[in-house]
């Protein structure tokens, strides 16, 4: 079964992870997130339960 033979796929996986960690990830990390977290307290809203007509 060719799926169980790791010889051709291990090098592809290793190079793709190296490309991601060494090239793509440092380029993406300096961006500032546009959705910054706020310090406002969260308010929880209480929704009333449904009155089911068949119960």
Please, could you describe this protein's structure?
With 55 residues, this protein is an all-alpha fold. The protein is 40% helix and 0% strand. It is built from one helix and no strands. It has one helix at residues 7-28.
Short structural description:
By secondary structure, this protein is mainly α.
Strands, count: 0
Portion of residues in beta strands equals under 5%
Structural class: mainly alpha
**How much is the radius of gyration in Å?**
25 Å
The number of helices is 1
Q: What is the helical fraction, as a range of percent?
A: 40-55%
Order of helices and strands: H
Could you list the spans in which at least 5 consecutive residues all have pLDDT below 50?
A: none
Given the C-alpha coordinates, what overall shape results? flat
Distance between the termini: 57 Å
Oligomer state of the chains in this structure: single chain
Q: What's the story with the biggest beta sheet?
A: none
Compute the average pLDDT: 80
Keywords:
55 residues, mainly alpha, 1 helix, 40% helix, flat, CF(0), ATP8_metazoa, ATP synthase complex subunit 8, transmembrane, ion transport
Detail the topology: elements first, then pairings:
Blueprint lengths: L6 H22 L27
């Amino acid at each position: 079964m060719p799926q169980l033979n790791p010889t051709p796929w291990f090098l592809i996986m290793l190079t793709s992870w190296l490309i991601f960690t060494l090239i793509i990830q440092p380029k993406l990390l300096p961006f500032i997130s546009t959705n910054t977290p706020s310090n406002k307290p969260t308010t929880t809203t209480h929704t009333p339960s449904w009155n089911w007509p068949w119960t």
